[in-house]
């Protein structure tokens, strides 16, 4: 196994799990944390699975994965978050489709990734429109599968996040709704209990770097797009557009954040989308508040 | 000269032990095959009970059994199993049928070999699971996607075994059949098919495995039912016991299909026992 | 090098004609131009050393060798008994005999053919359960049951004991008298050749090196002085010292 | 009585056509095998050019080629390919080696059959791709995960073909070798191995395919390199040309490995040509 | 039912002893209690009808049949020539002969053995490229080259023409005189049995039904009157009508 490190002697590098778009990509792309060992994950659930297996020490995910992970009794703590990014996820339909509001999708097929931030957005959208899950034909598709299905008209709408969102945003695609006013769509930093116990300071240093890089990116959006486009292998212009709305500054976790997460968890439990009850409030770890403030 | 021909025979035992012992009746023979699976499960349970194996890494067999019982009682297991079996069966039928046809054409006809075999050899290495994005475009995200994946998975083992089975038939027997006035179809039925049957059975064995494999991936794309979906869902909530239950179900299906194939083989390949004994 | 048969002028139309048959395996030429005619109802014995090309010739005459050159024509139907029995291992004895047979009462014909070769009780045996001689007799039954115009027999009685061999020879003679089929009989046994054949050929050096009519009556015995003379002549031609 | 034996021979052609034409030299034989792949590509290009096939559904071969050339020139393709090949090679070595060993034990020894075969039959149906969650727990998410998946994928075809190949050896030849004083090891070397070789080759063919298949899934879990990763990444960004390029690379690898196996077969199985001709 | 050999009291120690050998295939009993001793250097011919159990007995004596009952002991080494040639199809002729051979100059010994059976030029041929008789001779060479104490031969010359057969019989006689091995020779040819054997046995009804010492000198010919008498007696026992 390559997950040596949680042992005695040389603890090895910090093992960071990141997704294609989260703020951590920029840290990796700029080479700001040369000692870290990076693992790329397709989605939040895949990342929390590695967290459970003890294969990574820290990872960044969207809104829903912490809830699903907590429901799965995966040991982790939430050590950081970001400012809300409600424009970073949206419901997309074809431009020539008749749907004007989300309620028009009643009885239609909607694709989304299960257990991701968009899953929570769906819950909120249903709630806001007085609908239930039974009113839609939900198709759970990963981003890589959702795109061809959406492009080929096999689903009527696709709920997706950046950068897939920005990549799909073309003249023949229309945004039906985004998360504004419905969900915060924050990023969450999850850390394994072992690393918090034994390498807390090291993690703090890393988080400081993370914060600095994020702030630099917000201050230099053009350069940020230049650095990230080749790393993500997407056009610079698309990267620019997506980053402009989705890259928000980091923020410390607070009891208020815990309440927000708990509300999400309770919402999922109420819909029986996760087996309850889920106590996620207690997963909040505020020790890095100063670093991220 | 002959003096040297017969000289210096090397020292050796007059009766070396046979490569394979005879197939005569052995007491408890039927149950001996159960020994190692039972032992395996026992060791696993003991390891889990003693705490050597943490339940997150691998839950105890008894825990898996309890989960299985729970899901079986409320009917969940049956629904999922039925859906998976239907998909696997349909896919096997389509993929296997096509493989049998093309394999026979390539194995029997020179022209068929030249035309059919090269594309198949190219396609052979296409990991059909890598085709998922293209398949979504071509056949959609519904049942046909799952069935296509199963059919693709089942195709290759059957094709290759059909081809090899036909190629390996003793040509002298085909000649004998020709001199008995058997036409092409009759030769197929009386010589080629029975001669290739052992290879076909092997292909079927491998194809059944490949079918499940494809299904487990296929059922992760927009499925609401099926054992693959059940496992996938459990994986999301880290319900290792359900994941392992899914695996146990697969294992049992493996044993069952093996049993069925063994019976079928015993029936159709009786003549081989004669070969053995002789 | 007398390769034409002396019977070419007799009225019986030839059931087999072969002209300039040549076959080489790589650099070695096994058949260097064989001409052969067999008239309807004629039994021809083919003798020759081990590896002289007898089986090769037989396969060519049966139309099984696509790499041989020359011309061969069979008028009517032919059945073959190969040097190895070539029974289908996955068919019981009776089904092996019935292979490709059609017409009325197949089962009855198969039964009787197996009875003729003394294996009436092994109908349901698998080929792998037969002794060498039994398998050979089943192969003979498989050929006889089809009532062909021409029988191509490659040492059909090689694995049989003296008694069974006599019986089989008797059977062949009787069936031939009844049905008048022609036969090309490859054999190592000079006496067998003289007992059964109208003509004996010796294959040597890739050609028919010797042709010997056997003008003996239908009831022949080795005690016949003419038989003895022919026997000596054939053995002589085959290089076997005779006392 | 004999009258009926020889009666009523059915009417039939004196010389039915052979099941398989002879293997003599055919002009252009070597290139005939290229015909159907070339035709396939030509039709595909034509369909793309004429607009029948939209580039999103399937980009034209020329477009794929251009992408390939671009990625080849900047070295991307070579890096990914090398990594994938390393993983596949290691996994094949481990899984294939183990399969050969266990297959031989089960095929040769009665006891081995009773102990080894039932668990393998159970495991056979375990879709190893369904094991990913457990494998992540056991071996982590690094290279060992990918190699384990490949090894698992390669195991079964080789195991089953080894087993069947050994079982199908003509026991009479083994007997003959025993009477020649060959001990167990010598019999293995001189009788069992050459006799099972055709089956082993078939197993290897299937195993190579299974290895790629496993890799394509394995390289979706925390990989930064490999053809599977390349395709995965392209999938996420809907770069169909790169996806198809990946498939083309796989197809070419399929052809190459087939060619290599054909050469190896021709070398080690010369004796079969004799069998054919006879 | 005289199953014991008359030579039991002679000084030559037995190279093979078999007692109460029984073998049944399902309901049919093929061997119903065979007793057999072969003294060192003795050649015993085994005759019997097709399917009488000769090959079965040979396999048992070679230790290849685990389902037979009774006791068999071979003192020294044994080599077998089976009724079918059983050459490994994936080994060239020379390698088939050399199979399992060790000691000095294997290549030379193989060369000479193949030369003895007249196949010096087919060393590099594949078994599938041999004629029936050639394959059989390779199998004989494979047995002879091991210089065993006991040769078990199942119709070793069945597929050979008269001349080659004579040569092989001569070879066997010469080698035996030189090396004094014992042999059990299954044959269908009564003359061959009388030419080669010290004793002839007839297997019938699952037991050794007849035992016939062959008190002829080392230089035997079929013209010998004693030979003729023995021949008639044997044929008679086999049920073949003699004139
Ligand atoms: N496939 C082959 N490749 C090369 N040589 C071959 C092949 N088949 C046969 N031969 C050779 O051709 C010659 C004739 O073989 P054939 O089987 O016709 O002999 P035969 O007269 O039937 O001998 P026998 O009496 O021993 O059966 C032999 O020398 C044999 O080695
Ligand atoms: N595996 C088997 N199953 C059933 N019966 C068998 C099997 N093997 C042999 N037999 C039968 O046992 C009897 C003796 O066979 P065996 O081969 O010993 O005869 P044989 O004396 O060698 O005859 P031949 O002279 O024809 O070679 C035959 O009737 C045969 O059918
Ligand atoms: Mg021959
Ligand atoms: Mg026999």
Task: Name the assembly state.
Answer: heteropentamer
Give the distance, in angstroms, between the N- and C-terminal Cα atoms of chain A. 36 Å
SSE topology string of chain B: HHHHHHHHHHHH
CATH architecture identity of chain B: Orthogonal Bundle
CATH superfamily of chain B: MetI-like
> Taking strands numbered 1, 2, ... along the chain, how are they ordered across the largest sheet of chain A?
2-1-3-10-4-11
Largest sheet of chain A: 6 strands, mixed
Number of domains of chain B: 1
Whole-number radius of gyration of chain A?
19 Å
Mean pLDDT of chain A: 83
Give the strand tally of chain B. 0
Query: What low-confidence regions of chain A span 5 or more consecutive residues with pLDDT below 50?
Result: 1-8
Total helix count of chain A?
12
3D shape of chain B: globular
Share of β-strand residues of chain B: under 5%
Low-confidence stretches of chain B: 1-27, 274-278
Level of helix content of chain B? over 70%
Which CATH class of chain B? Mainly Alpha
Kindly report how far apart the N and C termini of chain B lie.
37 Å
Helix proportion of chain A: 40-55%
Structural class of chain B: mainly alpha
Describe what you observe in this structure.
- By secondary structure, chain A is of the alpha/beta class.
- Helices cover 41% and strands 17% of the residues of chain A.
- A six-stranded mixed sheet of chain A has the order 2-1-3-10-4-11, sandwiched between helices. Chain A has a five-stranded mixed sheet with strand order 7-6-8-5-9, sandwiched between helices.
- In chain A, helix 1 (24-30) packs across helix 9 (221-232), helix 3 (64-71) crosses helix 11 and helix 9 (221-232) packs across helix 10.
- The radius of gyration of chain A is 19 Å and the shape is globular.
- In chain A, 54% of the residues are buried.
- Mean pLDDT of chain A is 83; it is low at 1-8.
- Chain B is an all-alpha fold.
- Chain B has a single domain, classed as MetI-like (MetI-like fold), CATH 1.10.3720.
- Chain B is built from twelve helices and no strands.
- Chain B has helices at residues 2-5, 29-49, 61-73, 76-108, 110-124, 132-139, 143-167, 171-179, 184-218, 227-236, 240-268, 270-277.
- The longest helix of chain B has 35 residues, at 184-218.
- Chain B is globular and about 70 Å long.
- Chain B starts with a helix and ends with a helix.
- The longest helix of chain C has 18 residues, at 162-179.
- Chain C is globular.
- At the B-D interface, helix 2, helix 5, helix 6, helix 7 and helix 8 of B face helix 2, helix 5, helix 6, helix 7 and helix 8 of D.
- The site of one magnesium ion has 4 residues of chain E, from helix 1.
């Amino acid at each position: 196994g390559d997950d040596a490190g949680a042992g005695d002697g040389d603890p090895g590098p910090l093992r960071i799990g990141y997704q294609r778009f989260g703020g951590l990509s920029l840290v990796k792309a700029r080479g700001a944390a040369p000692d870290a060992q990076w693992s790329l994950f397709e989605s939040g659930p895949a990342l929390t699975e590695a967290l459970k297996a003890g294969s990574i020490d820290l990872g960044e995910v969207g809104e829903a994965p912490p809830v699903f992970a907590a429901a799965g009794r995966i040991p982790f703590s939430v050590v950081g978050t970001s400012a809300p990014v409600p424009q970073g996820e949206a419901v997309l339909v074809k431009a020539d489709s008749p749907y004007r509001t989300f309620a028009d999708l009643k009885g239609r097929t909607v694709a989304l990734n299960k257990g991701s931030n968009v899953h929570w957005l769906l819950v909120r959208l249903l709630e806001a429109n007085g609908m239930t899950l039974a009113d839609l034909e939900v198709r759970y598709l990963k981003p890589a599968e959702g795109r061809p299905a959406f492009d080929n008209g096999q689903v009527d709408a696709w709920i997706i996040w950046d950068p897939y969102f920005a990549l799909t945003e073309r003249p023949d695609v229309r945004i039906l709704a985004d998360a504004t006013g419905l969900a915060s769509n924050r990023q969450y930093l999850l850390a394994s209990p072992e690393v918090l116990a034994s390498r807390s300071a090291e993690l703090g240093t890393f988080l400081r770097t993370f914060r600095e890089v994020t702030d630099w990116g917000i201050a230099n959006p053009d350069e940020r797009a230049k650095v990230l486009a080749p790393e993500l292998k997407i056009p610079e212009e698309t990267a620019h557009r997506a980053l402009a709305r989705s890259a928000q500054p980091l923020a410390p976790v607070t009891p208020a954040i815990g309440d927000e997460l708990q509300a999400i968890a309770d919402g999922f439990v109420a819909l029986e989308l996760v087996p309850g009850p889920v106590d996620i409030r207690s997963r909040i770890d505020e020790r890095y508040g100063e670093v991220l403030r | 000269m002959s003096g040297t021909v017969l000289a210096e025979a090397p020292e050796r035992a007059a009766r070396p032990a046979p490569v394979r012992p005879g197939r005569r009746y052995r007491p408890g023979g039927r149950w001996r095959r159960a020994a190692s699976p039972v032992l395996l499960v026992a060791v696993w349970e003991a390891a889990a009970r003693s705490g050597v194996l943490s339940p997150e890494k691998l839950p105890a067999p008894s825990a898996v059994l309890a989960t299985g019982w729970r899901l079986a009682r409320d009917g969940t297991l049956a629904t999922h199993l039925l859906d998976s079996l239907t998909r696997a069966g349909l896919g096997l039928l389509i993929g296997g049928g096509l493989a049998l046809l093309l394999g026979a054409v390539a194995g029997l006809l020179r022209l068929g070999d030249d035309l059919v075999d090269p594309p198949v050899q190219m396609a052979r290495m296409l990991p059909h699971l890598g085709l998922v994005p293209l398949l979504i475009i071509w056949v959609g995200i519904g049942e046909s996607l799952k069935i296509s994946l199963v059919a693709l998975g089942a195709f290759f083992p059957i094709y290759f075994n059909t081809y090899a089975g036909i190629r390996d038939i003793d040509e002298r027997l085909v000649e004998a059949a020709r001199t008995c006035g058997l036409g092409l179809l009759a030769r197929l039925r009386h010589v080629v098919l029975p001669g290739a049957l052992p290879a076909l059975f092997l292909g079927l064995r491998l194809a059944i495995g490949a079918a499940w494999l494809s299904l487990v991936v296929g059922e992760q794309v927009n499925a609401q039912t099926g054992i693959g979906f059940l496992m996938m869902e459990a994986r999301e909530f880290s319900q290792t016991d359900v994941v392992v239950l899914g695996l146990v179900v697969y294992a049992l299906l493996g044993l069952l299909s093996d049993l069925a194939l063994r019976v079928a083989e015993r029936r159709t390949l009786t003549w081989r026992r004669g070969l053995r004994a002789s | 090098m007398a390769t034409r048969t002396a019977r070419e002028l007799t009225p019986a139309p030839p059931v087999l004609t072969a002209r300039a048959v040549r076959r080489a395996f790589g650099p070695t030429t096994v058949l260097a131009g064989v001409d052969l005619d067999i008239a309807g109802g004629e039994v021809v014995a083919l003798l020759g050393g081990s590896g002289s090309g007898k089986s090769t010739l037989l396969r060519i005459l049966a139309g099984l060798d696509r790499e041989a050159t020359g011309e061969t024509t069979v008028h009517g139907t032919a059945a073959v008994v190969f040097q190895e029995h070539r029974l289908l291992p996955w068919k019981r004895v009776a089904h092996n005999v019935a292979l490709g047979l059609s017409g009325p009462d197949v089962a009855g014909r198969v039964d009787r053919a197996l009875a003729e070769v003394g294996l009436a009780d092994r109908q349901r045996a698998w080929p792998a359960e037969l002794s060498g001689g039994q398998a050979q007799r089943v192969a003979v039954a498989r050929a006889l049951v089809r009532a062909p115009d021409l029988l191509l027999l490659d040492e059909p009685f090689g694995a049989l004991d003296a008694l069974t061999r006599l019986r089989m020879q008797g059977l062949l003679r009787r069936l031939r008298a009844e049905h008048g089929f022609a036969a090309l009989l490859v054999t190592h046994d000079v006496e067998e050749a003289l007992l059964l054949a109208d003509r004996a050929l010796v294959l040597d050096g890739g050609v028919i090196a010797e042709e010997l009519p056997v003008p003996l009556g239908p009831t022949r015995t080795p005690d016949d002085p003419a038989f003895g003379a022919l026997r000596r002549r054939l053995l002589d031609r085959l290089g076997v010292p005779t006392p």
